[in-house]
Amino acid sequence: MCPSQRNRDFQTVTYEKEGDVARVMLNRPQVLNVYNVQMRDDLCQVIGAIKDDPDIRVVILNGAGERAFCAGADLSDFLTAPSPVIARQVRWERDIWGLFMSLPQPVIAALHGYVLGSGIEMALCCDLRIAAEGARFGLPEASLGIIPAAGGTQTLPRTIGRARSLEMLLTNRWIDAQEALAAGLVNRVVPQKDLMPTAEALARKIASMPALAVSCAKEAIIRGSDMSLGEGLELEKKLATLVLSSGETLERVKASLQNRRAGS
User: Fold this and answer.
1) In what helix (H) or strand (E) does residue 108 lie, and over which residues does it extend?
2) Which residue in the list 66, 141, 236, 248 is annotated as catalytic?
3) Domain spanning 4-207: which superfamily?
4) Angle separating helix axes 84-91 and 37-51, nearest 10 degrees
5) Is 141 noted as a catalytic residue in this protein?
6) pTM of the model
7) 66 catalytically annotated
8) Catalytic: which of 16, 18, 66, 121?
9) 101: helix, coil or strand?
10) Topology of domain 211-263, CATH
11) Is residue 15 within 8 Å of 23, Cβ to Cβ?
């Protein structure tokens, strides 16, 4: 297997695997990378392949072009079904959002330009979010007579709180990158020219760490957030035992002790 792999068979996304880092790019820049049925199908294939690939340790998700990560759903596509009910069923026929959140590998979203509707919902399915300085975030669904249906009403309040989420959704208020940082929606804000280098450096740092420890830490936080404190502590205990019993962890501990002794 070559260190770097590219797959050009997808119509709406590009996929590249370089060593232990996977890069997925939404690739409809002519329409601000809006999410449509074809993108749903392409992402299902790509994310499914990543989930089944033990060599991949980190995933970077970004959008093509200069203007947007993703400016929402392509309503001209989804609303061509015979009725709104069928349209929504078509849109969410595949649980791409659940697939995103089931990945054992950390996912880094590199966000720029418009991050709206399905775009912000997709970003909220990722573990870490880095925003370019000019990014703008919003949930315009209610102003269009619909509501978010890709988890936004659940993931956004869990990330930035109920009050801010209700204001964004009920008034179609957009926030900029600095406000998103202050609210906890993104982890970092960087100049746009530094967006991908920052995401790449973060991915390399994560990929350098023991894979089992990283995946178990992610699982403990994500699964534990929906548990009581007691249940979460029990989950942590089980995952910690699993990590400590792994050969990789034992080798790391031995190496660390040897380095400390050599430096003393």
Assistant:
1) strand 107-111
2) 141
3) 2-enoyl-CoA Hydratase; Chain A, domain 1 (3.90.226.10)
4) 30
5) yes
6) 0.85
7) no
8) 121
9) helix
10) Lyase 2-enoyl-coa Hydratase; Chain  A, domain 2 (1.10.12)
11) yes
